[in-house]
Write a structure and sequence with these properties.
- The protein contains no helices and 14 strands.
- Strand 1 (7-12) and strand 2 form a beta hairpin.
- The protein is mostly beta strands and 179 residues long.
- The chain is globular, with a radius of gyration of 15 Å.
- It has one domain: Regulator of chromosome condensation 1/beta-lactamase-inhibitor protein II (Methylamine Dehydrogenase, Chain H).
- The protein has strands spanning 7-12, 16-21, 26-30, 55-56, 63-68, 72-77, 82-87, 100-107, 113-118, 122-127, 132-137, 151-156, 165-168, 173-176.
Amino acid sequence: MPNSYVVTSISCGRDHTLALLTSGKVFGWGRDGSGRIAPDTPEYCSTSKAPTRAVEVNARKRLVSVAAGYGVSLAITAGDQVAVWGANSAGVGGRPGSIALSTPQYLTDVAEARTVVAGEFLFGAIDAAGTIHTWGLNDEGALGRPTSQLNALPGPVTTSPPASQLALGNPAARIRDPP
C-alpha cells in the first residue's frame, strides 16, 4: 500500500468520521463535517443522503491532527494552526456566520495549537503553553470561561492550570493536568 494511504488516526463524530493519513491528507465520510460538497451547492458540506465512499477534505495545508464533532470538524495544520469545517450554524465552529464549510477555514484566535477536541457544539484547543482555548455553545458555562455570548468565538480559559489533554462532551468540559 502506498504511504499516502496509510491511516495514522481516526476520529468519529455524531454523523461523520475522519481519517488522517500519514501524508497529511484527510478523508471523511458521513454527514455534516465530512468535507463532501453537495451538487450545485458550492462550499456546503451537507446533503440529504451521504455518499457510499470517503471523500478527500479540501485542505490547502498539511494536517497533523483531526477531531470530528457534531457536524463540525477540527484539525491542526503542520504550521500549528486550527482549521475548522462543517455545519457552522450560528458560529459555533469558531467563525461568525451560519454557513457550512467544506473547505477548512483557519482560526486566528488560537496560535501554536498542539491539541484539538470536538464535542457536541463545544470545541477546544490547547496551545504550546498549555493554555486551553474553548468556543461554541456556552450552555451552563460549559466553555469554562466567562462570556456573555451563548455561541462564543475562541477564547482562553484563564482559570485553568496548563493542560496537555482535554475532553469535551455536552455540556461540560473535563480538564486533565499534564503528567
